[in-house]
UniProtKB/TrEMBL annotation:
GO terms for molecular function: metal ion binding; poly(A)-specific ribonuclease activity. It comes from the Eukaryota. Belongs to the CCR4/nocturin family. Residues 116-394 form the Endonuclease/exonuclease/phosphatase domain. CDD domains: Deadenylase_nocturnin. Pfam families: Exo_endo_phos. One of its GO terms (cellular component) is cytoplasm. This is Nocturnin. GO terms for biological process: circadian rhythm; nucleobase-containing compound metabolic process. It comes from Parambassis ranga (Indian glassy fish). Keywords: Biological rhythms, Cytoplasm, Hydrolase, Magnesium, Metal-binding. Its cofactor is Mg(2+).
Length: 405
């Protein structure tokens, strides 16, 4: 047997051991909330990702209050943005970013669709495991970060919001954004590292929000990604949405692939599994025959891929028969190069400045109208991210899209 085959076989055995371990009773910290304990019990009897029920959730008192048994949040986005800015009045200036407009005149009539991709940094990881050695602890507090995160979303008002590392879905993001007209889906990781942190708020996962005034939901699926047919700890949320302006449908996916160096092969397998799911889904929606590589329904795939552009999983997406391209390449002069960074942090192991986050789109059916530029190194500052100015170690990606004629 060749060395590469031996290595592949060892990887498969290791993965099977990890999957078997993940099915054991989770070691949840005793300080975990009721939602954590409930999720712990559920994971012992189910191999698929389960959303946490909101019944045991205490709504965030800064944004939500109980009225006649129903959560009530500030309904006016302008007022809520003012509330966030007031709570952050002592912070340094926020990162100033402008949109680069790229319109070429071949889009369908109607206003563009604004899409945000963002790994917001799970609160339990930011305070408990990620060790941002140059970030003051006060800047990592939830009382500050939640205002910064909502300010970022409210500033750009996307029609579609794709988030990773969400561990405050039920108590903050779902009720607050629902009050502003967003519908949403959430898929937690089967075994989230957040559960190892004392006082955690439950598992982190992927969340997809869409403006109900602009879209109606046609189909929704939560997917546990597999590698070599073995279920992994990474997930995806997929929604098929119908645009109320144009009457056309779009399939939107949000995912977060395996982190860390040495797991390139697993990210590649997870990416292939997601592409397979998406191809099957859009073919089913469009009524296309199996194996048709060019379905009619456009795709938007947002995620923290934890992969630089030279990795195999990036190549798989860029060469997929689904006809995908990366929107943020539009910022480069030649249109072929990704940004220098989408994440910039300093940990005990050193400084990390990498491009890991992407918005993929169907280039034959969608057009990129505008891209939010990246902040400069000077704006980010010598201590990098997160900071008092910015709540995550990943920068948000925001694009405007139009359907092509």
């Amino acid at each position: 047997m060749s060395s590469s085959c031996v290595h592949s076989a060892v990887q498969r055995r290791r993965l099977k051991v990890r999957v078997q371990r993940s099915n054991l009773t989770p070691q949840v910290c005793p300080m975990g909330g009721g939602a954590t304990r409930l999720y712990s019990a559920l994971t012992q009897t189910s191999s698929s990702p389960l959303p946490l029920p909101p019944a045991d959730t205490n709504l965030d008192p800064d944004f939500c209050k109980e009225k006649k048994g129903s959560p009530v949040c500030p309904p006016d986005p302008v007022e809520l943005l003012r509330q966030c800015e007031e709570a952050l009045r002592d912070r340094p200036p926020r990162l100033h970013r402008t949109f680069i407009h790229l319109g070429d005149g071949d889009g369908a009539p109607g206003s563009p669709i604004r899409v945000m991709q963002w790994n917001i940094l799970a609160q339990a990881l930011g305070e408990g495991l990620d060790s941002f050695v140059r970030c003051p602890l006060e800047a990592l507090s939830w009382s500050r970060r939640k205002h910064l995160i909502l300010e970022e979303i409210l500033t750009y008002r996307p029609h579609i919001v794709c988030l990773q590392e969400v561990d405050h879905y039920f108590d903050t993001f779902q009720p607050v954004l629902a009050s502003m007209g967003y519908s949403s889906s959430f898929c937690p990781k089967p075994w989230s590292p957040c559960l190892d942190v004392e006082g955690n708020n439950g598992p982190d996962g992927c969340a997809l929000f869409f403006d109900q005034g602009r879209f109606e939901l046609q189909d929704s699926a939560n997917i546990r990604l597999s590698a070599m047919r073995i279920p992994t700890n990474q997930v995806a949320v997929v929604n098929t949405l119908r645009c109320r302006t144009t009457g056309r449908s779009v399939c939107v996916a949000v995912t977060h692939l395996k982190a860390r160096s040495g797991w390139e092969w697993l990210r590649s397998a997870q990416g292939s599994d997601l592409l397979r799911h998406l191809q099957n889904l859009v073919q089913k929606q469009a009524g296309a025959p199996t194996g048709d590589p060019e379905p009619d329904i456009p795709l938007l795939i947002c995620g923290d891929f934890n992969a630089v552009p030279t990795e195999e999983v990036y190549r798989r997406f860029s060469t997929s028969p689904l006809g995908l391209d990366s929107a943020y390449k539009k910022l480069s002069q030649d249109g072929l190069t990704e940004p220098q960074y989408t994440t910039w942090k300093i940990r005990p192991t050193g400084e990390c400045c990498s491009t890991l986050d992407y918005i993929w789109y169907s280039q034959d059916t969608l057009r990129v109208d505008a891209v939010l530029e990246m902040p400069t190194e000077e704006q980010i500052g010598p201590n990098r991210l997160p900071s008092f100015s910015y709540p995550s170690d990943h920068l948000s990606l925001v694009c405007d899209f139009s359907f092509k004629e």
